[in-house]
Amino acid sequence: MKVVSMLKNKNLWLILSVLMTVSLGLFFEATAAEKKMIILLDPAHGGREKGLALTGDVYEKDITLAVALAIQKELATDAKMAVVLTRHKDETMDLEDRREIIEKSKPDFVMSLHVNGGFGKEAAGFEIYYPECGEKATAEKKTDKASKTNAQNKCQSDSLKMAKSVQENMGNLFPRKGRGLRKADLPVTEGMGIPALSVEMSFATNAEDKKKLLDAKTQAEIAKAMATSIKSFGR
Ligand SMILES: [Zn+2]
Q1: Counting C-beta atoms within 10 Å of the first and last residue's C-beta, which end of the chain has fewer, N or C?
Q2: What is the pLDDT along the chain (235 residues), one digit of tens a residue?
Q3: Do residue 164 and residue 200 come from a single domain?
Q4: Beta strand segments in 28-80, E
Q5: Ligand 1 centre and the CA of 94: distance in Å?
Q6: What is the DSSP letter of 154?
Q7: Statement to judge: residues 19 and 84 lie in one domain
Q8: CA of 203 to the centre of ligand 1 (A)
Q9: What's the CA-to-centroid distance between 233 and ligand 1, angstroms?
């Protein structure tokens, strides 16, 4: 049968239009289902709350903001990611302000950025804290015991997965500078059951670390390492 005569056949037209409708429907359904992953970046400190001093006029608050903005830039080209920041500029924000933003934006992951200090001038390197997603995380929610455990488990395993990935990518950037993974609930997400990390990027009190933290190129490299982890987390 010739194509023209095939298309003249009413039944074939009917079948074709049904197929078109079904496939279009599936297409739109798939598009709608592809929800963006919300990443919340929390540059610690800000405004009057300066954090550790690196020089006479550069503080922890400046480094955390610079790196957070650089991570946002790295993720901007990823259509599957939506990035929210607790602050975009040098402003004072207390813990409650930050928690409110986190609660409202319902992120899939929270990443808090800090600069470390103390333990003598020899102490150096990066440190990663991940939450226990403990009892407080689900105590207020009236869900059954099984789902509580599931939510808690997911929060824990997602946090640990990201922690390991950041450890690896930061380790590639700063070989032998990893100080390990530490378990501790983060004040910004405590009680929320949201997977999170707090990254102490380097030491303000170590000369070599400080030099790196102040270097714009190294800040961009730190941001790239973390963005790589965030991107792989969502896949
Ligand atoms: Zn800090």
Answers
A1: C
A2: 555 555 567 777 777 777 777 666 666 555 555 789 999 999 999 999 999 999 999 999 999 999 999 999 999 999 999 999 999 999 999 999 999 999 999 999 999 999 999 999 999 999 999 999 976 544 455 556 666 688 889 999 999 999 999 999 999 999 999 999 999 999 999 999 999 999 999 999 999 999 999 999 999 999 999 999 999 987 6
A3: yes
A4: 37-43
A5: 13
A6: H
A7: no
A8: 11
A9: 25
